[in-house]
């Protein structure tokens, strides 16, 4: 739920690389995809694609399958519950920013994937992956022909992932099943093909809440150390209890669920694909998909930490817990942490349709496309608060309650970040691209997209008689009555906007080896439906994103190099910060701008036979513009943030990527990947920061024979431990206040721990 998580926690870096594979393209035409990027080599997740970062707040992760987004919106239906880079895919690549903008209207790079269709004969691929924590992942594709140009392809994916530490709510942190079946009819004379496909997925994305946070000691110099025996990444910070009590936003009834059931995602999809090549060279592609699903995501967001041993708190609290025998006992630990649980779920119906005509001539390619994307959702986020222990001995946390205030674990139902919206969003777009070799030395690529966006539905951004937003309060739900007498009832929404995207790229070959390259993309958007989920309406002004890059490239027999300067900005970012003062939490909506200047140099070297070396260097300066908000708490204290001019939280100024590999023999490849992230700020006011760190990968791949390949990968082989991202509940802390804060317990995200993975692929 993006609106309840500090937006800075989803910031992305500026990695505006024009890689060496693309450099070779400059001599001929504009490629749709980037090279030199292993999108599945991920330091943040064991099962999802790598997030390629561009210096802006994260939008939806863009992943396409067969030319359509895997999911229209990733909240509440996350990508990993629907898509995996498994044996069912015949191709995976990375679309460039301009191509993503023109064909989808979204910002950033996009993973581009295509489903494996049936081929002649009988063919199979069995992939297997495991790690030393007990992961078991299987993927099987079988395809073949049925005669008379009819073909089939079926796929099964199974994931049993216990994570890197044991939890009590379920034996697995990820339990995902995906099944696909496709039938293809190929036309005579190689004129094209028609495919009907069905996909079913069932996924419990427990890792989303199980790995969100952990306690550590913030030393004060940008480093952290362990809190007692708690090991970051390998010790659970979830309470042992699995049940959750919440108040239904729609009905107002108190209900119970388990954390495992609350994050159930289920989807049924029907797709149609058609390709046809006319005698005059015109090619027509059509793809359509209908999806009926339940999307769900659970957040267990850490909030305030209370020191019960401090002089001011010793008599203020009376925390209790229930022991294994069901007896009530006094809690004698030093720290208590407040958690906000957000149970996001929605029933979704999607219909996505894209039709595209293209024609290729000797020196140019013209493409005309149409998108009709319809998204219908009934969504709410039920939130509840509870307190838990912060065990220093590495044991499981337990839920607590303050007997001075309440007699149960859960409180403040729907008070802080509950959400609701219902209705549909429709996007109808027309796009055009032209890739033109004007001369043998000059290539020009340009494109445009015109999009009509329509929103219709309702939400719960309710105003009182004075015209002020009521905001959320304890036991908030549709039909509730606020303290001022306002009855909470749905508010109708209706918006129509015209969006557009423009893109231009040019390459000039000064010599056979050296040339100039540049591109410019300008995107105009408006808020998506999910931006209307909080207690206030978002800024509905246009969101503009200009991206410009200019630089040089050089190629020879052993070196391919590109160096570019870049600029990117985005206006009217909508966000909601959860600001804390004492034990109280208030939501503060805001709209702000971001701009980033950057310099990137990317090179691929082949100094001697068998050895390849890819390196990437990025310097960037992302800053906030017009970032101001405030909120008044119940005790009269006004929390104010003015971050205008500050460096964007969580984004490093320097990023280095080093990827050497060596073919020991023609069948055995040894490779490593080093990624360096410099100092990052852990809150918006630049009060806390984390020192730079390395993310490391390494492995060996062995092509045993034409059918069997084996591999071993080590994640974080330097075994770096530490925190990253933002610090929970720290947004109002200023630089002056933080100067004297040393060796204090805090909570936040952490680096993925040392992991050994093995994999095998058998083709038959």
Question: What is shown here, in short?
Answer:
This protein has 764 residues and is mainly beta.
Would you kindly provide a written description of the structure presented here, covering whatever features stand out?
With 764 residues, the protein is mostly beta strands. Helices cover 3% and strands 55% of the residues. It contains five helices and 40 strands. The chain has a 22-stranded antiparallel β-barrel. A five-stranded mixed beta sheet has the order 1-4-5-2-3. A hairpin with a 2-residue loop joins β28 (584-608) and β29 (611-625). 46% of the residues are buried.
Main attributes of the structure:
764 residues; mainly beta; 22-stranded antiparallel barrel; 5-stranded mixed sheet; 3% helix
Q: What kind of sheet is the major sheet? A: 22 strands, antiparallel, barrel
Unreliable parts: 1-29, 48-53
Work out the helix count.
5
Q: What does the radius of gyration come to?
A: 26 Å
Q: What's the β-strand tally? A: 40
Instruction: Bin the strand percentage.
Output: over 45%
Helix content: under 10%
Residue-averaged pLDDT? 88
**Which geometry do the CA atoms define?**
globular
Distance between the termini: 43 Å
Structure class: mainly beta
């Amino acid at each position: 739920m993006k609106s309840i998580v500090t937006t800075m926690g989803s910031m992305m870096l500026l990695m505006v690389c024009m890689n060496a594979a693309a450099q070779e393209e400059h001599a001929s035409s504009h490629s749709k995809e980037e090279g030199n990027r292993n999108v599945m080599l991920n330091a943040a997740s064991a099962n999802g694609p790598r997030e390629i970062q561009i210096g802006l707040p994260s939008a939806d992760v863009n992943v396409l399958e067969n030319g359509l987004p895997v999911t229209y919106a990733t909240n509440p239906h996350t990508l990993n519950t629907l898509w995996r880079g498994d044996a069912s895919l015949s191709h995976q690549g990375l679309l460039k920013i301009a191509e993503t903008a023109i064909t989808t209207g979204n910002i950033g790079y996009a993973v581009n994937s295509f489903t494996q269709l049936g081929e002649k004969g009988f063919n199979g691929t069995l992939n297997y992956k495991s790690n030393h924590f007990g992961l078991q992942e299987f993927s099987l594709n079988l395809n073949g022909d049925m005669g008379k140009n009819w073909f089939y392809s079926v796929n099964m994916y199974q994931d049993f992932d216990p994570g890197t530490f044991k939890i009590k709510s379920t034996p697995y942190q990820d339990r995902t099943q995906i099944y696909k079946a496709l039938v293809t009819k190929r036309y005579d004379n190689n004129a094209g093909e028609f495919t009907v496909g069905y996909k079913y997925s069932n996924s419990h994305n427990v890792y989303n809440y199980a790995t969100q946070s952990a306690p550590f000691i913030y030393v004060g110099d940008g480093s952290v150390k362990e809190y007692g025996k708690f090991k970051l990444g390998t010790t659970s910070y979830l309470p042992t209890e699995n049940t959750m009590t919440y108040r239904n936003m729609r009905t107002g009834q108190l209900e119970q669920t388990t954390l495992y059931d609350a994050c159930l995602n289920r989807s049924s999809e029907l797709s149609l694909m058609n390709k046809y090549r006319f005698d005059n060279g015109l090619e027509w592609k059509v793809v359509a998909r209908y999806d009926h699903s339940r999307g769900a995501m659970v957040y267990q967001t850490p909030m305030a930490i209370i020191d019960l041993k401090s002089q001011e708190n010793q008599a203020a609290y009376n925390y209790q817990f229930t022991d294994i025998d069901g007896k009530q006992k006094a809690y004698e630990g030093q720290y208590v942490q407040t958690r906000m649980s957000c149970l996001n779920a929605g029933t979704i119906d999607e219909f996505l349709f894209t039709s595209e005509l293209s024609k290729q001539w000797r020196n140019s390619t013209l493409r005309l496309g149409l998108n009709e994307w319809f998204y219908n959702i009934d969504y709410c986020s039920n939130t509840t608060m509870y307190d838990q222990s912060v065990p220093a001995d590495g044991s499981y946390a337990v839920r607590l309650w303050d007997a001075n205030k309440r007699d149960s674990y859960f409180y403040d139902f729907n008070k802080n970040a509950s959400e609701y919206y219902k209705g549909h969003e429709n996007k109808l777009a027309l796009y055009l691209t032209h890739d033109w070799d004007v001369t043998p030395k000059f290539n020009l690529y340009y494109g445009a997209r015109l999009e009509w966006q329509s929103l219709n539905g309702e939400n719960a951004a309710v105003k009182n008689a004075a015209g002020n937003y009521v905001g959320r309060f304890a036991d908030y739900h549709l039909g509730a009555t606020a303290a001022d007498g306002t009855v909470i009832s749905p508010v109708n929404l209706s918006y129509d906007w015209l969006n557009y995207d423009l893109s231009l790229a040019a390459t000039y070959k000064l010599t056979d080896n050296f040339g100039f390259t540049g591109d410019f993309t300008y995107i105009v958007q408006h808020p998506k439906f999910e931006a209307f989920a909080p207690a206030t309406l978002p800024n509905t002004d246009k969101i503009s994103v200009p991206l410009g890059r200019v630089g040089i490239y050089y190629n020879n027999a052993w070196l391919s190099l590109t160096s570019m300067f870049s600029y990117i900005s985005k206006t009217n970012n909508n966000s909601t910060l959860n600001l804390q003062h004492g034990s109280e939490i208030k939501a503060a909506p805001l709209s702000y701008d971001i701009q980033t200047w950057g310099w990137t140099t990317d090179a691929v070297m082949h100094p001697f036979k068998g050895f390849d070396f890819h390196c990437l260097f990025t310097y960037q300066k992302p800053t906030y513009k017009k970032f101001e908000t405030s909120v008044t708490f119940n005790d009269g204290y006004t929390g104010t943030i003015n971050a205008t001019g500050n460096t964007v939280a969580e984004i490093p100024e320097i990023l280095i990527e080093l990827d050497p590999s060596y073919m020991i023999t023609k069948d055995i490849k040894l490779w490593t990947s080093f990624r360096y992230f410099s100092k990052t700020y852990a809150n918006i006011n630049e009060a806390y920061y984390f020192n730079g760190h390395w993310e490391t990968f390494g492995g060996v791949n062995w092509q045993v024979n034409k059918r069997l390949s084996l591999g071993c990968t080590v994640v974080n082989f330097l075994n770096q431990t530490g925190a990253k991202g933002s610090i929970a509940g720290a947004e109002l802390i200023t630089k002056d206040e933080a100067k004297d804060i040393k060796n204090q317990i805090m909570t936040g995200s952490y680096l993925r721990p040392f992991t050994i993975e093995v994999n095998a692929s058998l083709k038959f």
